[in-house]
Write a structure and sequence with these properties.
Distance between the termini: 33 Å
Largest sheet: 13 strands, mixed
CATH architecture: Sandwich
Shape: globular
CATH superfamily: PCu(A)C copper chaperone
Length: 170
């Protein structure tokens, strides 16, 4: 972000504009979907934490286009926990984004955090809060598994395997 102004990027192949900046409160409102009592078989679970991940997948796109990562996070704890960072050895750049629709256009904005409510879930899903994955460090194809480390406000990290899916598999 230069001179305090949001950085804007346009991807002509997708018609999507991304702007870096959105308040954490707005991001939490858009991203948080709590379903009390939902039962999930965790795909990833960090020792000593109350956060688990399920159904983690990446939407594959050709020609080294940015890919989206999606996962459902469940918090079994008594306190809200914020997802505050994402990292991956498979990508040069990983970010938490929110898609905002304005009539016939959509734009993506980078957000600082997304809240996983106490005894609830956060759905990181297409059309909403998602992981933006750019600059793949090696060839990534449908059927591959990539690892993304999710970082939380309580200091915990969760190394999560994400299955790469083609558009036909979604």
């Amino acid at each position: 972000m230069a001179n305090g102004f949001p950085r804007t990027m346009f991807y002509p192949a997708t018609g999507i504009t991304m702007t870096k900046k959105l308040s954490s409160l707005t991001a939490s409102l858009f991203c948080s979907l709590a379903f009390a009592g939902a039962a999930f078989a965790p795909a990833a679970h960090a020792a000593g934490t109350t956060i688990t991940a399920q159904d983690a997948w990446v939407r594959w796109l050709p020609n080294n286009l940015p890919m989206g990562g999606y996962v459902t996070l469940k918090n079994d704890g008594d306190q809200n926990v914020d997802l505050v960072g994402v990292a991956s050895d498979d990508y040069g750049m990983t970010m938490l984004h929110q898609t905002i629709s304005n009539g016939s256009t959509q734009k993506m904005v980078m957000v600082d955090k997304a809240t996983v409510p106490a005894h609830g879930t956060l759905s990181i899903a297409p059309g909403g809060c998602h992981l933006m994955l750019e600059q793949a460090k090696h060839k990534i194809a449908p059927g591959d598994t990539v690892h993304i480390t999710l970082k939380f406000s309580d200091g915990e990290t969760l190394d999560t395997p994400f299955t790469v899916k083609s558009p036909a598999q979604q």
